[in-house]
Amino acid sequence: QVQLVESGGGLVQAGGSLRLSCVASGRTFSDYAMAWFRQAPGKEREFVAGISYSGSRTPYADSVKGRFTISRDNAKNTVYLQMNTLKPEDTAVYYCAQRNAFYPTETGEYAYWGQGTQVTVSS
């Protein structure tokens, strides 16, 4: 039974930074792609960033390119999302997800999801 637990969300002023973490358990973490999605109130869930099993492939949504960085530490079974220059439009619940494949996609084709962590960016 795979479990994903996010942490690091909170309230930050525009222009600030946060780092989200997601710790995975239940199977060999290093074999699987990971991703971050987010969902704002009244909006569809959207892909934010993904990372391949080795960390070599890291697609990003256009809206976060240059500001967010996804990374992983397979020794710690953890994926991170470093978020810089945060904007109010980044306010959302951020979800960690694990795919049953080596490489990420920008769709919701992920087998396991965390409970989410709230990120609120004030003006």
Q: Biggest β-sheet: count, sense, barrel? A: 6 strands, mixed
Helicity level: under 10%
Kindly report the oligomeric state of this protein.
single chain
Q: What structural category characterises the helix and strand content? A: mainly beta
How large is the count of helical segments? Answer: 0
Unreliable residue runs: none
Through-space gap between termini: 40 Å
Helix and strand run: EEEEEEEEEE
**Judging from the principal axes of the Cα atoms, what is the shape?**
globular
Number of strands: 10
C-alpha-based Rg, rounded: 13 Å
Strand content: over 45%
The overall pLDDT average reads 96
What would your notes on this structure say?
With 123 residues, the chain is an all-beta fold. It has strands at 3-7, 10-13, 18-25, 34-39, 46-51, 68-73, 78-83, 92-98, 112-113, 117-122. The strands form two sheets. Strands 2, 4, 5, 8, 9 and 10 form a six-stranded mixed beta sheet that branches. The mean pLDDT is 96.
How would you summarize this macromolecular structure in one to three sentences?
With 123 residues, the chain is an all-beta fold.
List the helices and strands and how they pair.
Elements: E1 3-7, E2 10-13, E3 18-25, E4 34-39, E5 46-51, E6 68-73, E7 78-83, E8 92-98, E9 112-113, E10 117-122
Parallel strand pairs: 2-10
Antiparallel strand pairs: 1-3, 3-7, 4-5, 4-8, 6-7, 8-9, 8-10
What would the keywords be for this entry?
mainly beta, 6-stranded mixed β-sheet, globular, 123 residues
